[in-house]
Input
Amino acid sequence: MRKHIKIGTRGSLLATTQSTWVRKQIEAEHPGVTVELVKIVTKGDKILDVPLAKVGGKGLFVKEIEEALLRKDVDLAVHSMKDVPSELPEELHLGIIPPRENPHDAFIATRFARFGDLPEGATVGTSSLRRRAQLAALRPDLKIVDLRGNLDTRLRKLDEGKFQAIILAAAGLNRLGMSSRATGYFTAQEMLPAVGQGALGIELRKDDAELLTGLSFLNDDNTTVAVAAERAFLYRLEGGCQVPIGAFAEVQDGQVELTGLVASVDGTEVLKDSISGPNAEAQQLGTQLANKLLDMGGREILAEVYGQE
Output
C-alpha cells in the first residue's frame, strides 16, 4: 500500500464529511499511510441559480473529479452514488461500495409533524425531478418549488419560512449528524429513492490494482449487489441523476428484489414495477425491469422529458 493517497472530493460539507470518513477508515486499516483530501469544484457546484434539470448533461457533480483521476492528480474519488452517471470513462470503475446509509427521503418541516398534515397548496422545496413527480402524484395540490444549495442553505430557507416543508436524502442528514431535523421519512412505497441513494462510491483507475486491494476492506457485498441492480436499470433507461427515475433494491438470503419507477414530471403518469432473482443476476434484472417499464409507456414519458432538457 502506498504511503500517501489523495482523495478527490467536492468541497461541500457533506462531500468532505463523506471523504473524511473514508480517509479515517483507510488510515485506521493501514497505519503509516497518510490520506489527503483534494477539493475539486464541479459544474454542479458553480451553477446554483438554475434548476439542475435545466443545466443539462450528465455527471454534473463528478466530471471534473473524474478528469483529475485520469490525470493522476488524485488516486481515488468519493462520490454520493446518486450523483454518478450510469456510464463511466473507460479507464475508471467504481471499485468499492461501502455499506449503505438510510436510502430513503426525509420529510422536514417546522410546523407539521407528517407529510399528510401539510395544508392544501403548501409550498414544498426539492431540487429533484424524481421527488417532484412523486410528490405531485401523492399530493397534486402542493406547490412544488425548486430548491438548490447545500444542506445548510436548504434548511435555512425552510427555517426562514420560504417553504412549509422540504425533502432531503436521509443519508446526508445522518452523515452530518443532523438526523434530528427529519420530521419523518417516506417509505419506498410512498417515494422511491434515487438510484444509489444512501450509498457511497469509491471510483478508481482500472489499472490501479494495488489500491483496489488495499481498499477492499471497505466494500459491502449486499450494497454492491443492490447498487448494481439499480444502476443497470438507470443505464438501460439512459438516465442521468436529474430525471424522474427511481429505483430501490433490497438484498436478502442471496436474492435481490428491485423496484423501479418512471414518471412524468407533473406526476400524472407513474409507472412502477418490481422484479426479483439471485444476486448473481442483479444487472440482468435491472435491465429486464427497465425494458418492462419502457414497454409500459416509459419510452414515451422519457422522450418527452429529454426533449425538454
